[in-house]
């Protein structure tokens, strides 16, 4: 594998690091507001001429690392595609995360964790603690056991300079049944999640910085945020926007969905970029092209 040049300071390894929000702002400004998703679907492994086993997964992940490390602001591995290969798959995920840290590229581990008290503490330690084999710069969290149940992860992320993206308005149509529901006072679930993020980000906001507690808001969600009173600007954190590419959203949807909050967006796309592989050069070019299109769509 050829070496890659670090472009963004900080890593998911050990040692003091600046808050995730500040590091993400810098990486997005330098390389465009895009996280390329590493989702090794069986069909993609096949399209790349690789077997659907740990050896194929390893080749896939190392090709992504070579193409994407130093090329884009962030890389978002989806944990389930590694876990389905058992312990050898998880070892590949560990290696990918370590390689991204060495390359100076931010990692967002898509695990969508959320659980009760002491179990949430263990989930937090698995991906947000210094020295944890699966530590990433940020993780995705599910608030549907109650936003308060995420406290162990929020605290550990803050203590270690890492970040979280909490599901608010997901890109899949089924999400609306839960996320658009309103409480007795008329506050939508998604709006309550955004308010909770705003409270966590208050300190960063006061310093004029992007916070480290982000939301997941799909680029496919149309006017839902506005309709439901989800204060995207006011949440003060980064907005992870899946749905770009294979799920149908493009530059026009990014601009429409995020409006005045577009400066906070980290768009994410997996299959649409990965389809350019297995050539490292073609994958890198597709990632750069996607990053530039996102930068244009989200420019102030
Ligand atoms: O948290 C996520 O990353 C996520 C949230 C969401 O609302 N929708 C969504 O598609 N995702 C993830 O983003 C990726 C989208 O992949 P593509 O549709 O191939 O770009 C998948 O890994 C999904 O699990």
CATH H-level name... which superfamily? Aldolase class I
Rg over CA atoms:
18 Å
Shape summary: globular
Helix content: 40-55%
Order of adjacent strands in the largest pleated sheet: 1-2-3-4-5-6-7-8
GO molecular function: orotidine-5'-phosphate decarboxylase activity
Enzyme class: lyase
Domain Orotidine 5'-phosphate decarboxylase: 33-286
EC number: 4.1.1.23
SSE order and pairing:
Elements: H1 20-31, E1 34-38, H2 42-47, H3 54-68, E2 74-77, H4 80-83, H5 86-103, E3 106-113, H6 117-128, E4 138-141, H7 151-160, E5 163-169, H8 176-179, H9 189-200, H10 202-206, E6 213-217, H11 224-228, E7 239-241, H12 251-258, E8 265-269, H13 271-274, H14 280-297
Parallel strand pairs: 1-2, 1-8, 2-3, 3-4, 4-5, 5-6, 6-7, 7-8
Bound molecules: orotidine-5'-monophosphate.
Orotidine-5'-monophosphate binds at residues 37, 39, 78, 110, 112, 140, 170-172, 216, 218, 242, 245-247, 268-272.
Question: Your description of this structure?
Answer:
The protein has 300 residues and is of the alpha/beta class. It has one domain (21-297): Aldolase class I (TIM Barrel, Alpha-Beta Barrel). 44% of the residues lie in helices and 14% in strands. It has helices spanning 20-31, 42-47, 54-68, 80-83, 86-103, 117-128, 151-160, 176-179, 189-200, 202-206, 224-228, 251-258, 271-274, 280-297, and strands spanning 34-38, 74-77, 106-113, 138-141, 163-169, 213-217, 239-241, 265-269. The protein has an 8-stranded parallel beta barrel, surrounded by 7 helices. Strand 7 (239-241), helix 12 (251-258) and strand 8 form a beta-alpha-beta unit. Helix 3 (54-68) runs parallel beside helix 5 and helix 6 (117-128) packs parallel to helix 7 (151-160). The radius of gyration is 18 Å and the shape is globular. Bound molecules: orotidine-5'-monophosphate (OMP). Orotidine-5'-monophosphate is lined by residues 37, 39, 78, 110, 112, 140, 170-172, 216, 218, 242, 245-247, 268-272. Pathway: Pyrimidine metabolism; UMP biosynthesis via de novo pathway; UMP from orotate: step 2/2. Belongs to the OMP decarboxylase family. Type 2 subfamily. It catalyses: orotidine 5'-phosphate + H(+) = UMP + CO2. This is Orotidine-5'-phosphate decarboxylase. Pfam families: OMPdecase (PF00215).
């Amino acid at each position: 594998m050829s070496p890659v040049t670090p472009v963004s300071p900080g890593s998911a390894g050990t040692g003091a690091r600046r808050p995730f929000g500040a590091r993400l702002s810098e990486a997005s400004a330098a390389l465009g507001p895009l996280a390329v998703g590493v989702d090794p679907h069986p069909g993609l492994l096949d399209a790349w001429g690789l077997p659907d086993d740990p050896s194929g997964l390893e080749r896939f992940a190392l090709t992504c690392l070579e193409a994407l490390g130093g090329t884009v602001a962030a890389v978002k591995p989806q944990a389930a595609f590694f876990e389905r290969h058992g312990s050898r798959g998880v070892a590949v995920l560990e290696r990918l995360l370590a390689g991204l840290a060495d390359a100076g590229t931010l990692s967002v581990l898509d695990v969508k964790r959320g659980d009760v008290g002491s179990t949430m503490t263990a989930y937090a330690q698995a991906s947000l603690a210094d020295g944890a084999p699966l530590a990433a710069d940020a993780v995705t969290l599910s608030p549907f056991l109650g936003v308060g149940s995420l406290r162990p992860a929020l605290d550990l992320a803050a203590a270690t300079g890492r970040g979280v993206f909490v599901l608010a308005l997901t890109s899949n149509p089924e999400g609306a049944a839960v996320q658009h529901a309103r409480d007795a006072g008329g506050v939508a679930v998604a709006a309550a999640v955004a308010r909770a993020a705003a409270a966590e980000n208050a300190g960063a906001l006061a310093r004029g910085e992007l916070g480290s507690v982000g939301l997941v808001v799909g680029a496919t969600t149309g006017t839902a945020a506005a309709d439901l009173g989800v204060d995207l600007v006011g949440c003060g954190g980064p907005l992870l926007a899946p749905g770009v590419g294979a799920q149908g959203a493009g530059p026009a949807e990014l601009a429409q969905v995020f409006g005045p909050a577009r400066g906070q967006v980290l768009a994410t796309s997996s299959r649409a970029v990965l389809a350019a592989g297995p050539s490292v050069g073609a994958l890198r070019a597709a990632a750069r092209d996607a990053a530039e299109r996102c930068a244009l769509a989200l420019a102030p």
